[in-house]
Amino acid sequence: MAGVVVLVVLATVLVGFLAYRSWQNEQKRKDLLFAWATNNHYTVAPEDDSLCARWTGNPFGEGDHRRARDVVTGTTSHPFVAFDYSYETHSSDGRGNTTTQTHRYCVTALQLPTWLPTLQVTPENMLSRLGNAVGFDDIELESEDFNRTFRVHAGDRKFACDVLSPRTMQALLARPAGSWRIEGTDIITWSPGRLTPSTIIAALATLQLVVDGIPSFVWKDNS
User: Fold this and answer.
1) By C-alpha distance, which of 181, 115, 186 is closest to 154?
2) CA-CA distance, 181 to 170, in Å (whole number)?
3) Distance in angstroms (rounded) separating the CA atoms of residues 130 and 148
4) Contact between residue 35 and residue 65 where contact means Cβ atoms under 8 Å apart
């Protein structure tokens, strides 16, 4: 009996220690993010849940208890916003027990000079390859390497080809494969995890790469 009590106490202490370390690491992350933003003359807000309904595609529109926290806003070549996005999903085992899972993403959005048609690029994987096999739409471009690495969705194939020029595709292939989408007057990127200065810097670099590669006639045609 005494041994069981000792084990319970030790387990309680361990859980408390792990919870404290998790809180401590989260505080360090927030402090680092705030210091970096301040040094770059960006603004940080604890939360802005209106961002949860600003876009309609992935990773938005799923689950409930949607939150946008640690919101960083500023301007590089274009105004941008970056934030931690989370939502919850629930599953049941059929015996009255419900499990809640929290999904977390780093989201960065760059404001565009004008509205553009929707174009989404996501990394190719086993599920998306299965989608190709059963006929789900995926635009094939000139680069076979790009087609093997990414999945492209757009209502206008010509627009996709104009934005994803050979030079832009080559530049994207040289970077870690990520998800991004042009939606309305924004281009956004998202990835699982928590927001840090390095994730924002990398995301902005990818988005700027795409924007810089858009031909001038595309802007004129949609202005």
Assistant:
1) 181
2) 18
3) 13
4) no
* Length of the chain in terms of residues written: 223
Is there a single domain that holds both residue 85 and residue 111? yes
Residues 14 and 32 in one domain: yes
Judge if 106 and 147 occupy the same domain: yes
Name the H helices within the chain: 2-39, 126-133, 144-149, 157-163, 166-173, 197-212, 216-221
* Closest to 65 (Cα-Cα) out of 47, 41, 45, 49: 49
Q: Which residues pair with 64 in a beta bridge?
A: 88
The alpha-helical segments, DSSP class H, found in 90-196 are 126-133, 144-149, 157-163, 166-173
Distance CA 143, CA 170 (A): 9
Provide the token pair at 195: 């927001």
Which domain range does residue 73 map to? 42-221
Q: Model confidence over 124-138: pLDDT tens digits?
A: 865 544 444 334 468
Average pLDDT value for residue range 83-102:
87
If asked whether residues 15 and 104 sit together in one domain, one would say no
Each residue's pLDDT tens digit, 145-188: 999 999 999 999 999 999 999 999 999 999 999 999 999 999 99
- Whether residues 88 and 179 share a domain: the answer is yes
For residue 132, the model assigns a pLDDT of 44
C-alpha pair distances (Å), 100 with each of 65, 90, 96: 11, 5, 13
- CA 97 – CA 44 distance, rounded (Å): 39
Q: Give the pLDDT of residue 12.
A: 61
Q: Do 11 and 88 share a domain, yes or no?
A: no
Q: Quick one: CA dihedral 139, 143, 148, 149, positive or negative?
A: negative
**128/68 same-domain check:** yes
